[in-house]
Amino acid sequence: MGAPRPAAFGILPSPMIIDGKLIAAKVRSEVAEAVRALGAVGIAPGLAVVRVGEDPASAIYVRGKRKDCEEVGIRSVEHHLPATTSQADLLALVAQLNADPTIHGILVQLPLPKHLDERTVLDAIDPRKDADGFHPFNVGALSIGIPGTPRPCTPAGVMRLLEEAKVDPKGKRALVVGRSNIVGKPMAAMLLEKHATVTIAHSRTQDLAAEVARADILVAAIGKAELVRGDWIREGAVVIDVGMNRLEDGRLVGDVEYAPAARRASAITPVPGGVGPMTRAMLLVNTIELARARAR
Ligand code: NDP
Predict the structure, then answer these.
(1) How far is CA 130 from CA 125, 156, 265, 270, in A?
(2) What percent of the chain has pLDDT over 90?
(3) Is the Cα torsion angle 27, 29, 33, 36 positive or negative in sign?
(4) At what angle do helices 136-144 and 184-193 cross, to 10 degrees?
(5) Whose CA is closest to atom 24 on ligand 1?
(6) Is 60 exceeded by the pLDDT of residue 169?
(7) Whether the predicted model's global pTM rises above the 0.85 cut
């Protein structure tokens, strides 16, 4: 993954493809090293994953998380509760995990069945065990710059991709399309922290094409297949595509029209194989950081 080649004879250089799989593997090997170091001082990092009901996508995600934990040596414990679980029983489990000294990180897999209130459940997790970084305390900590608190995995993974691609956001115009609590808003906060000039676009943005055309760094987190047209991209921009959209023909595509965007970008993430693997890897990083923080 070298620097992009300079343009010559009016031909645009091919972009750097930011390889999320490769970078996630590097992150996992760093985590495995950290697990060994913690082991040497008698700490075995533990992650509890709570899944309620039979959502098929959640089952796949949780299996992936367990496999990642096994690979790096983090002890993972899955609590799979029936879809009929009451809010009180789920909160009781969270309280039990909060009090369990062998558990350093807790993750409640979303979405929860409709009769359960996600916000109440997430708020019940001890912020010092909040593996996803969704607790209001940790959201606030990111916003006001308290260091050492867990951060939402997807935007944290994007920041690591930018770092590995040697893209410094300082002074750059960054556009985040999407303002969800799990991706768009924390993404904007992290880019701002790195001194980008940040714009957030959303479904009520008047002229998305014009916003995209101004961006040096574009992060698309919309959930609409190829909504961002390739010819909107500013020449030389860095394009990070968080979107994962399954087409009717079974293909997985991002929120950005990849091929034409790649012709204009200086660096771009593929879908799949860009942001997705990093989201998983950053959960491991958060778990290690929580275990380290407890050790301190
Ligand atoms: P949400 O549905 O929570 O948020 C989507 C955002 O996109 C909203 O803020 C919405 O605006 C905005 N939006 C919708 N339509 C438009 C439009 N026409 N123009 C501009 N903005 C628009 O999604 P998430 O943030 O949870 O996820 C976004 C995408 O990222 C999805 O494809 C998801 O699958 C993917 N994802 C990928 C991950 C990974 O690891 N690769 C992890 C998490 C998510 P408004 O607020 O006004 O409604």
Answers:
(1) 6, 14, 36, 29
(2) 94
(3) positive
(4) 30
(5) 180
(6) yes
(7) yes
